[in-house]
Amino acid sequence: MARVYVSAVMDATLDEAWGMLRDFGALGNYHPFFENSYIEDGLPPDQVGCVRHFTVRDGGGYLRERLLELSDYEHRCTYEILHIDADWRNYVAQMQLFPVTESNQCFGQWWATFDVPPEQEAEACQRVADTFRIFFECVSQRFGKQG
């Protein structure tokens, strides 16, 4: 089983970062890997069980992911991949945010576990890690202090 963990301190407050994350359908609006993101069946983007559908840029196919948990109290979400144009199975990811009270920034951690053929594991883990890392960078770019 492949495991990926990425963490970062973002140049945003907890509320700013959570505001971006909790809109489960908006990923394709700001993440450079994805586009055409929407929630299927017109469900609210924070409703547990909703499915987001988005396209991978540069012809990489599409993904469908189901929101399994969303906690405004714990600033955490959990989701699973229902479809990906890759030989991945049993993909579950969770992201959680915490305040960094001293600097008014936000600490985020994001991890995933999934099954992938051994010969594809290194590349798949790098792809997932890059996706998580770039999300954190997008948050910092959107809310970062201009100097």
TrEMBL record:
Q: Which InterPro entries match?
A: Polyketide_cyclase/dehydratase, START-like_dom_sf
Query: Which SUPFAM superfamilies does the record match to this protein?
Result: Bet v1-like
- Protein name in the entry: SRPBCC family protein
